[in-house]
């Protein structure tokens, strides 16, 4: 099966799913005491932050391959991976690096 392209304005089907997910049901369950106490905005922000983390992770394989091609030591590769993880975590929290 060929994967169809994501809808216009979205970089992936995951980005589309996050942007269009149902936040109303969770909010109603929260109000009824049947779900976690989270607002629709908090739910959407959390999903957006997790999507940002996933998007940032997509860069790792290419970055690691580039490091290996440049014949960096294993320690240097590990240091660079740690730096990328910190950048991804900061991006997910909305912090500038």
Global morphology? elongated
Written as H for each helix and E for each strand, in order along the chain, the element string is HHHHH
Total count of domains: 2
Give the count of helical stretches.
Answer: 5
Stretches where pLDDT is under 50 for at least 5 consecutive residues are none
- Distance from N terminus to C terminus (CA atoms, Å) equals 40 Å
Mean pLDDT: 82
Residue share in helix: 55-70%
Radius of gyration: 18 Å
Describe the structure.
The longest helix has 19 residues. The chain is built from 5 helices and no strands. Helix 1 runs antiparallel to helix 3 and helix 4 runs antiparallel to helix 5. The N and C termini lie far apart (40 Å). The model has no long low-confidence stretch (mean pLDDT 82). The chain folds into 2 domains: 40 residues, no CATH class; 39 residues. Helix content is 65%, strand content 0%. By secondary structure, the protein is mostly helical.
Secondary structure layout plus pairing:
Blueprint (H helix, E strand, L loop, with lengths): L12 H8 L3 H8 L8 H18 L2 H10 L4 H19 L5
List keywords for this structure.
5 helices, single chain, elongated, mainly alpha, 2 domains, 65% helix, 97 residues
What's a concise summary of this model?
The protein is mostly helical and 97 residues long.
């Amino acid at each position: 099966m060929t994967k169809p392209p994501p809808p216009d304005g979205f970089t992936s089907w995951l980005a589309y799913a996050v942007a269009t997910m149902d936040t109303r049901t969770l909010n109603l369950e929260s109000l009824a005491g049947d779900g976690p106490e989270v607002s629709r905005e908090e739910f959407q922000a959390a999903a957006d932050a997790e999507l940002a983390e996933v998007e940032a992770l997509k860069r790792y394989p290419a970055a690691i391959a580039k490091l290996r091609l440049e014949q960096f030591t294993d320690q240097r590769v590990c240091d660079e991976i740690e730096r990328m993880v910190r950048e991804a975590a900061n991006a997910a929290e909305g912090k500038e690096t």
